[in-house]
Amino acid sequence: MNRYSIKMRASNKEEGHISGAEKIIPEEELEQYCSRLLTRALGHSKGKPDFINLKIEAVKEEEILHLPALNVTTVETSNAGEGMEVVSGYLHRLGLERAEEILAIWKQSYAMRGAILLDADTLQRLEPDRERGIRATYMDMETEDMERKSACGGKNHFNEALVLATKVVNHPNIVAELCISDDPDYVTGYIASKKFGYVRITRLKELGSPDGGRVFLFRGNEQERKECIQYLQQQKVLIHIP
After folding, report:
1. Do the Cβ atoms of 223 and 150 come closer than 8 Å?
2. How many CB atoms within 10 Å of residue 187?
3. 133 conformational bin, left if phi > 0, alpha if psi -120 to 50, beta if neither
4. Measured between alpha carbons, how far is 141 from 23 in angstroms, rounded to an integer?
5. Range list of H helices, 8-77
6. What DSSP line would sit under 164-179, residue for residue?
7. How far is CA 113 from CA 9, 97, 104, 122, 213, in A?
8. Residue 136: how many CA atoms within 13 Å on its side-chain side?
9. What is the C-alpha to C-alpha distance for residues 215 and 134, in angstroms, rounded to an integer?
């Protein structure tokens, strides 16, 4: 099967980043998904873009790593403070005693294009470019055709987050990922780890807040850091969702 990677990024001068999405799809679906992603870029709640970029690349089947989706747990919370307490509890379950400091550093990612790569023990920031951060890319879900097609008609926060989290925490040097969407209309976030899977937390910020960002918690040496960044930014991955 011939496949293509499509990446969409949309921005404007007032808001900066507005929308982004990516797919790895069969060649025969290329035209329809380009159209869908353009529609998504033009209809975001953060405003109209004045710049839209579509990047299309051929992907060889042998380049793709196939992974099963993480198990999913949902924790209902009534406010953002309660949600952060849940995240802190899961960090402690991972043996990370400096949870409150990690949560404070997480806020530094809110204005970044990518994620903070954070040493899980020393809390040193490890990303080469602190403004850009680390962008986990080249990933999509692989499921029944009709489910996949219906899932990309618009933004599906849950599926897209599960795909990204599954790719990220399957690297052996990633301890966990923390994420809040920057979508003002979406308040659910998550913490993910190979130890306990993907934990959806129903409220991690207040409705209308544009704040959002992510942290990858890393443990390893310098060579492993370089290999991890290469995996996050270049490895093609399809996540199999039951």
Report:
1. no
2. 22
3. left
4. 8
5. 30-42
6. HHHHHHTSTTEEEEEE
7. 11, 28, 18, 23, 8
8. 27
9. 9
Residues in the chain: 242
Residue 17 token pair: 């980043």
Written as six digits, the tokens of 40 are: 């998504």
Asked if 169 contacts 192 with a C-beta cutoff of 8 angstroms, the reply is: yes
Contacts of 183 (CB under 8 A, 6+ apart): 45, 46, 155, 157, 212
- b/e per residue 97-123 (b: at least 16 CB within 10 A): eebeebbebbeebeebbbbbbbebeee
For every one of its 242 residues, what pLDDT tens digit does the chain have, with 9 covering 90 and above? 789 999 998 888 776 777 788 999 999 999 999 998 888 888 776 678 888 999 999 999 999 999 999 999 999 999 999 999 999 999 999 999 999 999 999 999 997 889 999 999 999 999 999 989 999 999 999 865 434 443 444 557 899 999 999 999 999 999 999 999 988 899 999 999 999 999 999 999 999 998 999 999 999 999 999 999 999 999 999 999 87
Residue 24: enclosing H or E segment and its boundaries? Answer: strand 16-26
Burial (CB count within 10 angstroms: exposed 0-12, middle 13-18, buried 19+), residue 131: exposed
